[in-house]
Write a structure and sequence with these properties.
One of its GO terms (cellular component) is plasma membrane. It is found in: Cell membrane. This is ABC transporter ATP-binding protein. InterPro entries: AAA+_ATPase, ABC_transporter-like_ATP-bd, ABC_transporter_ATP-binding, P-loop_NTPase. It comes from Actinospica acidithermotolerans. About 35% of the residues lie in helices and about 25% in strands. The strands form 3 sheets. A 6-stranded mixed sheet has the order 5-6-7-3-8-9, sandwiched between helices. The N and C termini lie far apart (about 60 Å). By secondary structure, the chain is α/β, with parallel strands linked by helices. The protein folds into 2 domains: about 220 residues, P-loop containing nucleotide triphosphate hydrolases (Rossmann fold, 3-Layer(aba) Sandwich); about 90 residues, Alpha-Beta Plaits. The structure holds adenosine-5'-triphosphate.
């Protein structure tokens, strides 16, 4: 099958993991991971430290071999997809040669790809035109990260893999960076990024994959992940309220009372709220919302770790 038919064919996933495991001696880094990532989406890859994100990415880039299972990138073995120019990557570690300018470096990098972007276009897309004539060795940490991103997109590849790309960036640089990344996804690229910045994943990702201890825990849209956490938040103001008045409400997972302001995390917001009204309480400025992605992520991974958030905090709340 030709490249053209594989890339752009909605039937062919950008990345497919089938029962993939990887161990380093006794350490089981990835466990029977089965996952298909569709083309043309921005996909956040989330997991606590040591969950197996980098290992999975290195396997799909052909840098590491899986101990068992099968990985395909646009229907091809990873190395073949890399040499065909389908994949651009920015890994966690890796410096830049110190004595060349950013423009020289990008010129060199584009030469390694079969269908690269023009260097000026790369500079523009990565938002680093102002750094073009600077020596790579003199860049700040955040600037270095942006140049590394430019290298990842230089080949105009169909899949862009980014492992914690904003680590070490300040807020402003991160903002600029996420915009560049979003633009790549809007151009139809598949962007797979591992991150610990969940708020940003919340805003950018079309799809979220959560792994923990090498196993897949969740795969869906941001709202799927939030729904999977199964909790909602009720916030309101109630002058004179005491914590004791709220302790017997049903389905409460956690309860915060600060002066007149109350925040309840609940596994059934309707039942908790009706019970509140049944007690004769009349709260004001009521907000009922799903959890943020960060809270949902914590709930899902803690549940998997057997940390039993629900039980301990419910007891506390009762
Ligand atoms: N080369 C290696 N040799 C031995 N163990 C390794 C090696 N690389 C990773 N590991 C182990 O495999 C597990 C998964 O690591 P990995 O780096 O893939 O996780 P991660 O999700 O990317 O973590 P982080 O968010 O901290 O970057 C960890 O327990 C790690 O210590």
């Amino acid at each position: 099958m030709s490249n053209e038919r594989l890339v752009g064919d909605p039937e062919v996933p950008a990345v497919s993991f089938e029962q993939v495991s990887k161990h380093y001696g006794p350490v089981q880094a990835v466990r029977e991971l089965s996952l298909q990532l569709p083309q043309g989406r921005a996909i956040a890859f989330l997991g606590p430290n040591g969950a197996g994100k980098s290992t999975s990415m290195e396997i799909l880039l052909g840098l590491k071999h899986a101990s068992s299972g099968r990985v395909e990138v646009f229907g091809k073995p990873p190395r073949q997809a890399m040499t065909a120019g389908h994949v651009g990557a920015m890994l966690q570690s890796g410096g830049l040669p110190a004595d060349v300018t950013v423009r020289e470096l990008l010129t060199l990098m584009t030469k390694l790809h079969p269908k690269p972007l023009r260097v000026d276009e790369v500079l523009l897309r990565a938002n680093i035109a102002d750094l073009a004539d600077r020596r790579a060795g003199k860049l700040s940490g955040g600037q270095t990260q942006r140049v590394r991103f430019a290298i990842a997109i230089a080949g105009d590849s169909d899949l862009i893999v980014l492992d914690e790309p904003t680590t070490g960036m300040d807020v402003e640089n991160r903002h600029i960076f996420w915009n560049s990344m979003k633009d790549e996804a809007e151009r139809g690229k598949t962007v797979l990024f591992a991150t610990h910045y969940l708020e940003e994943a919340d805003q950018i990702a079309d799809q979220v994959v959560v792994i923990n201890k090498g196993r897949l825990l969740a795969n869906g849209s941001v709202s799927d992940i939030k729904a999977m956490a199964g909790f909602q938040r009720i916030a309101f103001r109630l002058p004179g309220v005491t914590r004791e008045q709220l302790l017997n409400l049903p389905h409460v997972v956690s309860l915060d009372v600060l002066h007149d302001h109350v925040q309840i995390q609940t596994s059934d917001s309707d039942k908790t709220f009706y019970a509140l009204l049944d007690q004769g309480l009349r709260p004001m400025e009521i907000e009922i919302s799903a959890l943020g992605l960060e809270q949902a992520f914590v709930a899902i991974t803690e549940r998997d770790n057997g940390d039993a958030v629900e039980t301990t905090e419910t007891e506390d709340a009762r």
